[in-house]
Design goal:
Keywords: SH2 domain. The protein is mainly α.
């Protein structure tokens, strides 16, 4: 972990030096950087959903609640405590990904407005549509896992999670 932290600090220093030297990097550089950030966030979110599913299903894929609890395994209790934490982290990452998509939509809208004044405007909506579709796909997978795990989440956490899910979907649809 220290090696990763040192490498990250070195790379951030190099990035700062490049930005200082070339204050105005090409737009394609910023767009590519944004795409990579979104892609990484989406992959991390998909991984969280798989972790939640594995935690619920158990290592054999047969059902955590039944097999491990019947065996009296300490893993069942630990897994039940870890599940809400994993779900909350996944919802937080979902909200971050949603903000990235909404930011990209705002940029696209602004570029469309500026195109009326003669600025360059790329009309291709395919990358934006792909972002929205992939985010909604992960949204439904995560929502399904939350609904399946509703018994483990408790009466007070489940309504808050469902409210956060509704906010994510409604803001995507409205914007």
């Amino acid at each position: 972990l220290r090696l990763v932290a040192v490498l990250k600090a070195i790379l951030e220093g190099e990035k700062a030096a490049v930005l200082k030297r070339d204050r105005h990097l090409p737009l394609s550089f910023h767009r590519r950087q944004e795409e990579l950030k979104f892609s990484l966030g989406l992959q991390r979110l998909k991984h969280r959903v798989r972790e939640i599913q594995v935690l619920r299903d158990g290592p054999t894929g047969e059902g955590l609640g039944q097999d491990w609890a019947l065996l009296g395994s300490p893993m069942a209790g630990a897994a039940r405590q870890e599940l809400p934490t994993l779900i909350l982290e996944a919802v937080k990452e979902l909200e971050v990904a949603k903000q990235q998509v909404l930011k990209r939509i705002q940029i696209w809208k602004r570029q469309q407005q500026l195109a009326g004044n003669g600025a360059f405007f790329e009309e291709n909506l395919a990358p934006l549509q792909k972002r929205c579709e992939s985010l909604v796909e992960v949204y439904f997978q995560l929502h399904q896992q939350v609904m399946v795990a509703s018994a483990e989440l408790g009466a007070e956490l489940l309504p808050r999670l469902l409210e956060r899910f509704n906010e994510v979907l409604s803001s995507l649809v409205k914007r």
